Amino acid sequence: MMTGEQYRQSLRDGRQVYIAGRRIEDVTEEPLLRQSIAMTAANYDEFYRPGEDAFGPLFFIPHSVEDLKYQEVEQLKWANPTRTTSVSLLMLMTAASRIRADLPDYADRVMAYFEHAKKADLRCVQTITDAKGNRALSPMKQDDPDLYVRVVSRDSGGVTIRGAKLHITGAPIDHDLIVMPTKRMKPGEEDWSIACAVPVNAPGVKIIATTYAPRPDLPADYFPYSARRNMAEGFVIFDDVYVPNERVFLDGEVEHSATFAHSLGLWERIGSVAHYVEMADTLVGMAQLIAEANGLQRVPHIRQKIAELINYATMVRAGLEAAVNNAGFTPEGWASPDELMTNAAKYFAAANYAEMVRNLHDIAGGSVLTAPMLDDLKSPETGDFVAKYMRTMQGVDAEHRMRLFHGIRDFTADTFGGWQSVTILQGGGGLHAQRLIVEKHYDMHHAKGLARKICGIEEPA
């Protein structure tokens, strides 16, 4: 296993990472990435144990409902690269189980890679969304064939890939990129049916980073959440990257091109739902605290909005518990959440999030955006005025109320808040993706049978 310092050293591997038009020579020294790396390094130190056979909890494979519950709770404590490693490897193993009957050699490669990642204590990230070009056209009909990652050549030792993958959270500070097709491919699109593992520092890999990390020229207490928890995004370019056969998990088998994406969707969405439970409870707490600070907690329309938030939080939690408690099992005995419940919960949480944030903002008022900074409260020139006009009553001083406003703004209405709003909607696939899975797994035959019974219609022979 690696320590936090060894993880930092492992990132000084010649990787090509860019931000705002400039090359980052050492990602560990980049101010906009520093907190992301610190969070991940802290996980390494937390999990570290000496010994050749030691490994961290992110390499844990659930075999029971209790295992799944433990895993979803634990993941909430982890930095993003730690969590995405667990999700990526569980995705690979789920895919391996689903393709083993037809493609046993690929399944064996997946299991060998899992053991390699565990032994080397790597951090990996699923790399799925292509540039896509004209969304109305399939990969082979694009005016540029590279708009979906594809194989451009093959030899006896491996394949060379070209293309780009977008929205890859944590890519600049991970070790490996787990590449997979973004959609089901058709006959004739064999070159786009590629799944593999690529080191971030492999020749030809370039990452253009963005981040919602707060501006370094503003005080950290103005961003009470995102100053402590932020993560870099990666626009990942594969400029003729060679991948040896042992790291190739699918190459041209279009009938299994969607297996990896569907497997990822399952694990990414259940992880998202677990996060949404905590997020929804946070929204409830923020709404109640700011209502009390403003003296509005007994006003009927405020109570109604808080009740709606409570109902939202409760339903998201119920969806998570239903998905885990109705777990399925692979032939290998690995536990995985129920696909119908997982996708229904993810859809409900994402589809209603914006309305819940609107309730919070309506309760809190305009000072969510315009409250002075805490430095203004400390200033000898402005402090007395801020203290006088930002307090509301006995027991609610200016600092208490200002911290609430800054927390609400940072969590829901500033750079991180915007990132979270889009991520909740698009993470793990947009709403349409969840609808498709729900429709696929819903027991329509049972529902139609109930309807026929009520209507007095015999079931067709």
Brief digest:
A hairpin with a 5-residue loop joins strand 11 (328-329) and strand 12 (335-336).
Output the strand order for the largest sheet.
2-1-8-9-5-4
- Ends: how far apart? 61 Å
Percent of residues in beta strands? 5-15%
The description of the largest β-sheet is: 6 strands, mixed
Strand-pairing-aware structural class: alpha+beta
Radius of gyration: 24 Å
Structure report:
The chain is of the alpha+beta class and 461 residues long. It is 49% helix and 15% strand. The strands form three sheets. The protein has a six-stranded mixed beta sheet, with no helix packed on it. Strands 3-6-7-10 form a four-stranded mixed beta sheet. Helix 6 packs parallel to helix 8. The N and C termini lie far apart (61 Å). The model has no long low-confidence stretch (mean pLDDT 95).
Please specify the SSE layout and strand pairing.
Elements: H1 4-10, E1 16-19, E2 22-24, H2 34-47, H3 65-75, H4 80-99, H5 104-120, E3 124-127, E4 150-155, E5 158-169, E6 176-179, E7 194-199, E8 205-211, E9 232-244, E10 248-251, H6 259-294, H7 300-325, E11 328-329, E12 335-336, H8 339-364, H9 367-370, H10 374-378, H11 383-390, H12 398-412, H13 415-426, H14 431-441, H15 444-455
Parallel strand pairs: 1-8, 3-6
Antiparallel strand pairs: 1-2, 4-5, 5-9, 6-7, 7-10, 8-9, 11-12
Keywords, please?
about 450 residues, alpha+beta, four-stranded mixed beta sheet, globular
